[in-house]
C-alpha cells in the first residue's frame, strides 16, 4: 500500500508550451474571486475582487495553478483578518523590507486549500496519491479520471468527485483532447489511514517537483 506504481514516475503529458501566458490559460475565461469582511458597524462588505494568488505554471507549460484561498487552522480565525493575512502571507526581512508571497503546500495540516488548475488540451497528469480528503469540481470541460485499480470514469462540467486519499490521475479530454479544461479542488486534512493494518502513504511522483518549494520563504529572506 505504501509503494508508488511505476506510472507515478511518468511526466505530465500533452500540450507542451500551451500555458505560455498568465492565468487563465488560453481559451478559458477570467475567474473572479471575491472576499468579504465587515465594516465598522459589523455589516458584511466586499473587501477585494481579483483572480487569486500564487500563479504557478506546471510541467513544461502544460497547466496553470492558482490558489483561491487557504487556511492554516480549523476552525479558521477571522479576527482582525488573520485568515486573510495568512492566506496571502507577507514577510519582512531583517535589514530591508522584502515583500513576497509564500505559496501554500499541497494541503495544510489542520487547514484547507482551495486550488484551481487550468489544463491545456489533452494534458494528463501522472498517477499520484494525496493523503487528504479532496472535493473536486469540474468547472469547465470534460475529464477522464483513472484510479490505480484500473477503474475509469468521465466527468463533465458541474460533476463532483469526493476523493478519499485515492490514487488517481486526471486527463483533460475536452473536445476530444483539443480544448483546455478547468478543475477546482478543495483539500482537507485527514488522520493517518490504515488498510488491513498497513499505513497508506502519500506519493506525488513527478508532481512532487511542482510543490517542492511551497510553504517556504526564499533563503535570502529567512
From TrEMBL:
Record-linked CDD domains: cupin_BLL6423-like
Superkingdom of the source species: Eukaryota
InterPro entries: OryJ/VirC-like, RmlC-like_jellyroll, RmlC_Cupin_sf
Alphabetical list of PANTHER family matching this protein: CUPIN TYPE-2 DOMAIN-CONTAINING PROTEIN (PTHR36156:SF2), SLR2101 PROTEIN (PTHR36156)
Protein name as annotated: Uncharacterized protein
Organism of provenance: Stachybotrys chlorohalonatus (strain IBT 40285)
Amino acid at each position: 500500500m505504501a509503494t508508488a506504481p511505476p506510472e507515478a514516475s511518468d511526466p505530465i503529458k500533452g500540450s507542451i508550451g500551451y500555458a505560455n501566458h498568465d492565468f487563465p490559460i488560453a481559451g478559458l475565461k477570467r475567474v473572479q474571486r471575491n472576499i468579504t469582511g465587515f465594516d465598522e458597524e459589523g455589516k458584511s462588505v466586499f473587501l477585494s475582487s481579483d483572480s487569486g494568488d500564487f500563479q504557478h505554471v506546471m510541467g513544461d507549460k502544460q497547466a496553470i495553478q492558482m490558489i483561491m484561498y487557504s487556511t492554516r487552522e480549523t476552525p479558521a480565525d477571522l479576527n482582525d483578518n488573520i485568515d486573510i493575512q495568512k492566506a496571502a502571507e507577507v514577510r519582512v526581512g531583517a535589514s530591508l523590507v522584502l515583500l513576497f508571497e509564500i505559496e501554500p503546500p499541497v494541503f495544510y495540516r489542520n487547514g484547507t486549500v482551495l486550488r484551481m488548475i487550468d489544463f491545456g488540451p489533452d494534458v494528463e497528469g501522472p498517477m499520484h496519491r494525496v493523503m487528504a480528503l479532496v472535493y473536486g469540481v469540474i468547472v469547465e470541460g470534460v475529464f477522464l479520471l483513472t484510479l490505480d485499480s484500473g477503474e475509469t470514469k468521465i466527468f463533465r462540467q458541474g460533476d463532483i468527485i469526493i476523493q478519499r486519499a485515492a490514487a488517481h490521475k486526471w486527463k483533460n479530454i475536452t473536445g476530444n483532447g483539443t480544448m483546455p479544461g478547468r478543475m477546482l479542488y478543495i483539500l482537507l486534512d485527514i488522520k493517518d489511514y490504515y488498510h488491513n493494518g498497513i499505513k497508506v502513504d502519500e506519493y506525488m511522483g513527478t508532481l512532487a517537483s511542482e510543490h517542492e518549494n511551497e510553504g517556504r520563504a526564499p533563503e535570502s529572506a529567512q
